[in-house]
Amino acid sequence: MKSASTVKRITVQEECSGKCESCERYFECTLPLKDTFKEKGILRMIRENLKSVKHKVIVLGGKGGVGKSMVAVNLAASLVAQGKEVCILDQVYDCPAIPMMTGVPDDAKIKIGKEGLSPYEAYPGLKVMSTGLILRTTDVIIWYHDMKRNATEELLAATHYGELDYLILDIPAGTSSETVNALKYLPDLDGGLVVTVGSQVSQNVARKCIYVLDKAEIPVIGVLENMSGFSCPKCGKSIAPIQGGAGKNMARDENVPFLGNIRVSEMISQSLDDGKPFVMSHPDTEESKVMMAAGKTVIDFCENE
Amino acid sequence: MAEVNETEDREVLKINIMMKCDFKCEDCEKFFECNDPMREKMFRRRRMAGAIKKMKGIKYKVAISAGKGGVGKSLLSTNLATTLAMMGRKVTILDQDLDGSTIPKMLGIQGTKKLQYGRKGMIPATDDLGLGMQVVSLGLIYPDDVITLFHQMRRGITEEFVANVDYGERDWLIIDLPPGTSSDSCNLLQYIPDLDGTVVITVSPKVAQLAARKATLLAAKAGSRVLGIVENMSGYVCECGEEFSFLLKGGGESLANELNVPFLGRIPMDAQISGTGDEGVPYVYKYPDNVISKNLREVALKVEKMVQEGKE
């Protein structure tokens, strides 16, 4: 019997099928065909459609449940508070949560007109575009990669956004499908905001996110650490349910700005369930200040550079 | 994508899905709804049948699902597996999370152990705790590279992991699913049609229930028995003994009632639990007497009882 040997890699097919839109090696590719793809077809349509949008920012985290949607919603609210017109594009297809987090009523539907789909205005100056506005909460639709890609194309190229200062993209966990689609279709993204929690386990994933952004040549605006500690109401001891402070370390290691900590609190979960971003409902809290500052950083980053 | 109503103020009513059959069952999004007799035939003929053969020696197969990310799927998988292993069972963990494979890290074998290739397929890595747990994970092949994987490749890897691993004789296979209710979760549910059940883990806020509800409905759609719902991050136990809530509480139980499935228990947090994941020693192994370990043991016993009864 042959002795066992270590499994070293997963075989990846290397030849070019000419289908840039569904290629896994898109960001590494240097073939001239890629330039043609960039100039023509869907990418051009998206470029044309998003002409009226001044800045585009993506919120990502790699890991699930670190607060990407929470940050997206509150970042949008903080931009609105600073006088901007904002739309959140919910790229989560399996369980779109943005409509609930922004208080869009259950029976709200998006309309389609001559110029395409029109986003739902959740608050003055804050619009929402999500598949959650089409599907009901009990609909389970199975989406494979190509379907997600088509939906992304549709949401980017056939939605009438109107005059916008910021388009905030909220993408699901993972560093493949939706993330790569968004980065591929929006090569002129202003930057990405990485959300993470304090534990090392989640850093491994968040770091991958930074590498993916790097591969796609999109700058990192900064790293936000969510769910950091609070104090016990009885003994006053400060507690870190998720140990670490690893977000700060990672920002330092990867040489990207660190935007601050957001404490975990019942107020935040309640505000999301109620559909009112805490930047609006609790403007004086520590957390709102962090988010307002993050909004300011985003504005400085996008408008002054 | 959108189907349009004919009247003036037009609303987007639904998302169009292609319904025609191209006989690629392994690649079909409507697999679980299909009743074409061809499905069985196709299934037997192709590699999908390989999983059944390789997994013949495994007594119970249970998937840990959540829909949502970061609610503690991997934590529950690791600790449930460890609990069962400490009770003397032979356990294998299959890490189906391909973008963020964290099981090797949580068991402290990231970077030190690799998957081996033997005569009968890949040989799982074993833990360092002497509990005889086996692990199959992409993190054991790529400890820290970023690979972009789209659907077909993910399916390919799942196929390898279910049909080309030398599982041998085991009592338990615990499958850690990634977030989402599409690609990886569905692949796995398609390839292992004889799962003994799915445990859904969630946190309390209503926003999290959106995803947990879909995960539960998906499992039901795939014909897998929903063993129950676990509520994680349900309160915090301070060292002074005070227990208080930092996310909301009770959402898991109300979802279980709504969907008419058992509620398996709640897992609070304490100062050590996230550290154990970083350290690579499962919580239940390091602090077997704490309340969290007790709750996890109860969940394990309930799950075991249910799948045993299901087999009879």
Q: Which terms would index this structure?
A:
heterodimer; A: 305 residues; alpha/beta; Rossmann fold; eight-stranded mixed β-sheet; two-stranded antiparallel sheet; 11 helices; 20% strand; globular; B: 312 residues; nine-stranded mixed β-sheet; two-stranded antiparallel ribbon; 13 strands
Tell me what the structure shows.
The complex is a heterodimer of chains A (305) and B (312). The model of chain A has no long low-confidence stretch (mean pLDDT 88). In chain A, the strands form three sheets. Chain A has an eight-stranded mixed β-sheet with strand order 6-7-3-8-2-9-10-13, with helices on both faces. In chain A, strands 4-5 form a two-stranded antiparallel ribbon. Chain A has 305 residues and is of the alpha/beta class. The radius of gyration of chain A is 20 Å and the shape is globular. In chain A, 37% of the residues lie in helices and 20% in strands. Chain A has one domain (53-304): Rossmann fold (3-Layer(aba) Sandwich), CATH 3.40.50.300. Chain A has helices at residues 32-39, 41-49, 68-81, 98-101, 145-157, 177-185, 200-215, 246-254, 266-274, 278-281, 286-304; strands at 5-6, 53-60, 86-90, 111-113, 116-118, 120-123, 126-129, 164-170, 191-197, 220-228, 230-231, 238-239, 258-263. Chain B has 312 residues and is an alpha/beta fold. Chain B has one domain: P-loop containing nucleotide triphosphate hydrolases (Rossmann fold, 3-Layer(aba) Sandwich). Chain B is 36% helix and 21% strand. In chain B, strands 3, 4, 7, 8, 9, 10, 11, 12 and 13 form a nine-stranded mixed β-sheet that branches. A two-stranded antiparallel sheet of chain B has the order 1-2. In chain B, strands 5-6 form a two-stranded antiparallel sheet. The radius of gyration of chain B is 20 Å and the shape is globular.
